[in-house]
Amino acid sequence: MTDTNRPLVEVKHLKEYFNINMGLFKTKPLKAVDDVSFTIHKGETLGLVGESGCGKTTVGRTLLHLYKPTDGEIWYDGKLIKTPDDIKEFRKKATMVFQDPYSSLNPRMTVSDIIGEPLDVHHLCQTKKEREERILELMGHVGLNSEHASRYAHEFSGGQRQRIGIARALAVNPEFIVCDEPVSALDVSIQAQVINMFDELQDKLGLTYLFIAHDLLVVRHISDRIAVMYLGKMVELADADEIYNRPLHPYSKSLLSSVPVPDPKIARANKRIVLSGDIPSPLNAPSGCPFRTRCAYATEKCAEVMPEFKEVSKGHFVACHHIDEIN
Question: Can you give the pTM of this predicted structure?
Fold first, then answer.
């Protein structure tokens, strides 16, 4: 009997540090992801947002073991992913759609070979005919025609290239997909088509997503829950509507105040919260709370102790010492 409450993906205290050469044989750790924990349930979409350089993409890549985690645990369907055999099995169930459709596709391979590569790596087709049928089926899922199969990636527009990338990700019949800013390199008109396609594929194939983006409107449209990251740390996590209607962390409030509203009256009434200063370098992150250097509510306590990432109401987690005063 399976546990229906058990998350499909569980990340516990994940850390990813890169050693940066400082000269004279000295290295210093760049804490790209620092003690991040979250869960994703089957059929759910978790949106991961934050400004550039906050560690969103590193979370996605480390989760799939494209980077070896410095510390922490990654559980999938109740099983700890640790050994090379675990990782190989895991990659049949979990795949990734990359950010840039211009650089993530091999220019020397036809569309058929790009989509078929995961089938070959995992030996998922017995005959050439079965392989061809599966490739055409995958192309149909993402709205590509059969005559596209013999063409090369450079012959397609950005939106079509991203569809090729999505078809490749679907090749192993995965249950979980990490979508790493899959629409940020596309025109706005194409973004909506690709986002709707992700929605349709989720309903049709029962997929679970970690959806990484910096565009908050895109994330709200597709996500069930949203996590906010800042400088390698997770600062808030809640249901999508809850985060939009009642953000608690000062960084989340600032992010959401910058989202454009199509109604001029509401837009004029909204007060934009502009942060002072620049985002610090992850190489020289502030002590205590990473956001304190740009926070209007910061005190000495914020400099001394990293606030605990705790549940303040059902399903709403925040890392802030002054949560009661701010709200």
Answer: 0.91
